[in-house]
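In the current project phase, we have settled on a layout for protein records. A sample record is reproduced below.
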Amino acid sequence: MSNIVGIDLGTTMSAIAALNSVGKPEIIPNKDGERITPSVIKFESSSHTYIGTEAKNSAATDSNSVAKEFKREMHNDAYRFNVHGDSYTASDLSSFILKKLTQDASTQVGSIKDVVISVPAYFKESQRNATMQAGQLAGLNVIAIINEPTAAALYYASTTDIKGKGLVYDLGGGTFDVTVTKTDGKDIQIIASAGDHHLGGVDFDQAMLELIEEKYKTQTNGKLYADEDGRHEFLLLAEDIKKSLSSRSSRKEKLAGEDGKVTIEITQSEFEEKISTYISRTELLVEQVLDEADCEESDIDYILLVGGSSRIPAIQKSIKKVMGKEPLVAVNVDEAVALGAAIKAGLVLVKDNPTAVSSTIASEMRTIKVGDVANHSYGAIIISYNENLGKYIDVNSIILKKNTPLPSTMSDTFYTTHEGQEVISIKITQGEDTDPDFVDKIDEIQINLPSNRPDNQPIEVKYSYDENQIMHCEVKDVNSGKVEAKKIDFRVDSSKKNTLDAFLVD
């Protein structure tokens, strides 16, 4: 029987979990006994890396060789981390984290091949595919991806007695997701999600660093640090102070900066004021998801916390202010996503490859149901006559709407624009706007048409979005019956995979 594994690939921290012999998920510690691993890489040389706590701590002395927070760049084709003459994409770097997690875990549970990896609910198609690509580069078979709030809801439902409509509030190291769910025992249905993939703990760390700098400058009228290594050193201190203020009202700290030594004191209220803009952004997203789910605050029966940053007292005060009730604190918020991803792995294997799991695990998995939704709208760019402008313009026509339950198939019919048209090229979009300039063009599919036809001939465009959140597109010339189909998936350069495999991960 194969190991059944889920991975929370986080911006600042990652974790791996596996189902035990009775179908319950358990965190697998890394080789240092840590249950979560910093998502940080230190490139010691062109063929040797350190990953985790040691890499994170070394940023203060050699920041140029340390890669971190690259999950935020998963959508950015232009992003490169350059070190020792080599260049790495966000997928490359993420593959090192995945390899570290699975290598350490395999020494305890045996070989790991099939995995489910979590992603923020609001990740776009390019970011999801980049995550799957990272898994393949790490030598893994990514059997599915799962939205982080969905994974957390899965784990909560398997360990606590929750029922009714819930709000999953997921504030991690770099991203924020908020999701409305409906739960009845171990039957979990996602209703709607909203989020921001540039909002999380690293922003709070930076705000704390600014607060430290301000207090140092007030006393010395000087600079706290001189270079990037110095900034990273004090950024580690800022993170430590931030964490301590989750349980303390204030903290004093001695600072040895560029212009002398001073003692400062930072209060919880000062920090809360410093991050108030970020908190306001989370509140707006909570209101947005409630609106999309057609819910009032009073309709929500429970609130589930996920992500380390949800421990911040100001965050919990904000939730109570907006929702009128206290959130549940029933599980380890750092581990819930990985544990839920392991459950998802069990569900996928029982459905697709039942002989790969034991009868005990299969029996447990059959008690669990989960239904997700499309977290973005998908459409096609068409030409439409605008009466106000008096001319034809490009329009993004939405075919599959955001928050549609998965799996789902939706179609629409469009028409050729001129006599003798021989080619239709469909640009596939992701986004909510009708203006093509404000949506992502994620792929294209082309169909050749018969010659010598009149205009206004019907063309059917069909989108199928499966429960693993992979898009399948089909374009059909209705009159001739000709069909062109495409699956929007990831591609990996096999030569790059061999290069990455040569790395030693300590």
In short: The chain has a mean pLDDT of 92. The first helix runs from residue 53 to 58.
